[in-house]
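Lab meeting minutes (informal)
Scribe: AK
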Amino acid sequence: MRKVMLLLLLLLLTGCGGTKFYLFGVDTDIITEAEGKELVYAGIGAVASLGSHVVGHYVAGEVFGVDFEYQDYYTKEHVTIHDDTSDSDLRWFARGGFVMQQTIGTALTSFEATRYSYFTKGYVGMNAVHTWTYGLRRSKYHDLEMLDDHGGNGNMEWGIYSAISLHNVLRTNWTRKGGDNN
């Protein structure tokens, strides 16, 4: 099974494109042809994608009254719930990061003016990688497990968020032609 998964990953990375290199079906010439400022915009978009996930948890925490604190985000031992909140509120807190991240990505890809921007390319690209690999990263206790522990279905929601990420990747114009590239 691992050999099949490795072959599929290799096909996704190359896109079966001969001598050209593709990353998940996107022609990497867009990166080599980009100017410095365009790459900066893409980098800012990528950081904004990860930041929006964290901000989504803060917003959900405020809206649903979940008193929490981040302890050590980088080792993934990061959420301590301080009070006795309902399972429903904790599920919304757990999904808050993905909901914010996917909503912003969908908004960025919904308008012709932003669909071409390198900021959007960076945001949508990082969002896809972050979402698609979320369950693979070794985390002590992550959002999908929190959903499962409080009556939700983490795998189903991960599938939904992954589909939205794919939708946004496919809606993003990965060429330099036809629009504003800021």
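Next up, CB showed the second protein from the same session:
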Amino acid sequence: MKRRHFFRSLAAAPTAAALLGQQPAATPGTQQGRGRALAAEDVPKLEISLSDAVADPAARFFNPSQFAALEKLSDILMPPLNGAPSASSAGAPAFLDFLIGRSDPSRQALYTAGLDGLNSRAKQQFNQPFGTLQNSQGETLLTPLRAPWTFAEPADPVARFLRAAKVDIRTATMNSREYSAGRRFAGSGLYWYPLD
């Protein structure tokens, strides 16, 4: 059962209970359906609360400064081009936040160390976190991506992160519904659906 159907059925439970309470009571000794008739006082009362009041509606793996850095990095690596949306407009950072949050610990460590490294280098060079930099300033910190590709992993943890993030951001953007709308493969179902 999909999660949304489960919550719809939970929301309908109080209505069903109220409707049961409005039905005429069966006479003593008669059966209604397979069970006995329920009196209004036998119907359980369910307390309802809004999900936003009891839980965080957008649980994130990355902390706010890491997520801002991921958004900035995504927009630098995949800007809007020829009518295609940017990575942020396509929802790639939110998707990667979900994906990395459910990935193995080594991949989580790669992303958190890389985003923290970008933020610390931005603070050293520009006195502000990476997520608040201008695109031209952020590009100066992405010099490891200009190095020739080799089979060996870079020794620098930020360079290792940038190498992995470039592929992940591109894949998440190009496989989004927003990116594929109006393109050659539009409507083929090759994009991911948002979690709701």
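CB comment: The longest helix spans residues 105-126.
No objections, moving on.
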